[in-house]
Amino acid sequence: MAAENQSLATYLPVLVQVVLGLSIPAAILLVSHIFGQRAKGNYIKDKAYECGLPSEGKVHPRFAVKFHVTAMLFILFDIEVVFLVPWALVYREFLAASIAITGATAVFLGILVFGLVYELRRGALEWEK
Amino acid sequence: MTHALAALDAFKSAAPQAGDWASILPEILVAGLGVFALLQALTLPASGRWLIPAVARVGLLLAGFLAYQAGESEGARFGGLLQQDASTHLWRQLFLLCALLTSLVGGRFFRQRGADEAEFHHILLLVTASLMMLAQSSHVVTFFVALETATVGLYVLCGFLRRSAASLEAGVRYLVAGGLSSALLLMGFVLLHGVAGMHLPKGADPLQFASIAAALLGHGGEPLALVGAALVLAGLGFKLGAFPFHGWVPDVYQGAPTPTTALLATASKSAGVVGLVLVVSGPLAPLAAKLSPVLAVLAGGSLLAGNLAALGSSDTKRALALSGVSHAGFLLAGIAGLVTLRSQEGVFGAADIALPIVLAYLLAYVLGTFATMGALAALPAESDERRPLVALRGLIRRSPSLAAGLTLGIGSLAGIPPSIGFFAKVLILWVLVSAEAWTLLALAVVSVAVSIHYYFSIIREATVRTAPDGEVPPRIPLLDRALPLGLGILTVLLGLGSLIKAALG
């Protein structure tokens, strides 16, 4: 029982973190609720401000985010390259000990390269269209 | 560097053998087909694009044949990352069947709506391959990675109709619900790993399902282990869409494109079931006595919540989504019975038949769902996310074959004899009787009676009520009409077959 308590005691910082994480936002919200200014809302005040004119159009229009696909693809490849780092560190020792490692990595790299070719051919990286 | 060198021996013993790769040939084939779909999209001219779904379907059949051939081959693969047994190959075939049917339902559906068919098949095949890996995982890492790969693909398929706000909303909702469930599952595994790490001898892998079970055998009562088990159950409950984690089900099922809804209802639910079965018979097996009441509460809650909520639904997809919650309840009841039976009489006996019964229930559910969803997907609608019951009015006049497929499919889901759905329900009730779970049995019977109401209101709209005059009968291609009808007839034939078999044997 004593050993158990000791092992749980090592998680005390986590508990402190959780308590802090809950209490600080709660305190901020509470303080701003108590001391903050309040005004009655009405139709005109709650409307989106459009230079003082009555607002027009849909609330949720679709609009192009040009770099969004590029950014997403960057994150994908960035993360996949991270997987290559440990491989690059150990592959010589592994090969010396005759453990097959290059085959698996070749498949992984092949899929990666194929993905790159696919997105190039589909024009996913041409944001100037 | 020295670290890596010191661990070399471990890697040497764990390095995959040729037999390991051969044992996952179906998965490799399916994943390879997924990549091949994109390759075809790059190289084929517009006139040859019909090859993409055709190749995928033939490949799925071939993978199914390979999984069938694997038959009874058993054993640990990849140094204990995977564990195959006789049921593994059945699960694989079930997932392949779901993928094949989704491809058949989804092909024209997505082409009509301007979505990329090649990318749809790509994601579908990758999801299928990872679900097949999930069914044989015996290590926390393979289990979690397989489940996550499948779920990430399903997020994309939910939001696949990018021009439809409802589809995108379904995708985001599923992303949030799925992210939460994955976090819960992972946290649960972390706690179990912690318990296993504290009590296992040095050298044992505390992420291995078998070693977690060994650690829990002596220390199952520790609060950390119980909290971990509860979190794992909650995470899998989300995937299953079981009470009280079913909040996301109606909205996501309704907003997602209908073929995706069918895939979510079948493959994703089967993934929840296989995950739960693996977990309760692997790492959490020592906690069986504590687990079975929890599972029974989840099952009873799902049965009630799903059926009562579906009563008030006026949208076909929403009603079917909520009925899916009650089917999750039936499956959970089967698993609860399985766990109870195991804790009573050790590993052998009636418990051994309970798992095939759960599988049979899933098969009946898959056939019924695809008959119904296939009919829905074939029907033209202004928007895919709004399919009110009244829109089915007079379907029997407009398209008799679709109406017949829909009726037979719903009949099987409702459990009307002589469909296969009836026998599946009876078998689950039999498991509950042998597990002596009387409360759950009563709940299951009552919920079947309640469910008749909303299932039959769908059938009534399609067959009895007449449509307003002057409506032009829609032109629906032969394949789209034949699939629901064929599946509907199959549910009856399989049901009759089991009746004859039961009468003779």
TL;DR?
By secondary structure, chain A is mainly α.
Core attributes:
heterodimer, A: 129 residues, mainly alpha, 0% strand, flat, B: 505 residues, 2 domains, two-stranded antiparallel ribbon, 21 helices, 76% helix, globular
3D architecture notes:
The complex is a heterodimer of chains A (129) and B (505). Chain A is mostly helical and 129 residues long. In chain A, 65% of the residues lie in helices and 0% in strands. Chain A contains six helices and no strands. Chain A has helices at residues 2-9, 12-35, 43-46, 68-82, 84-96, 102-121. The longest helix of chain A is centred in the first third of the chain and has 24 residues, at 12-35. Chain A is flat and about 75 Å long. The relative contact order of chain A is 0.06. Chain B is an all-alpha fold and 505 residues long. Chain B is globular.
Largest protein interface, residues of each chain: A-B, 17 and 17 residues
Q: Strand share of the residues of chain A?
A: under 5%
Low-confidence stretches of chain B: none
**What's the rounded overall pLDDT mean of chain B?**
87
Largest sheet features of chain B: 2 strands, antiparallel
Total domains of chain B, how many?
2
Task: Please give the count of helices of chain B.
Answer: 21
Q: Give the strand order, joined by hyphens, for the main sheet of chain B.
A: 1-2
Q: Which class of secondary structure composition applies to the elements of chain B?
A: mainly alpha
Helix tally of chain A?
6
* pLDDT < 50 runs, ≥5 residues of chain A: none
Task: Write the SSE topology.
The complex is a heterodimer of chains A (129) and B (505).
Chain A: H1 2-9, H2 12-35, H3 43-46, H4 68-82, H5 84-96, H6 102-121
Chain B: H1 2-6, H2 8-14, H3 18-23, H4 25-43, H5 51-70, E1 75-77, E2 82-84, H6 86-112, H7 117-134, H8 140-158, H9 165-199, H10 209-219, H11 223-240, H12 249-255, H13 258-281, H14 288-311, H15 316-345, H16 350-378, H17 395-398, H18 400-414, H19 420-434, H20 438-463, H21 478-504
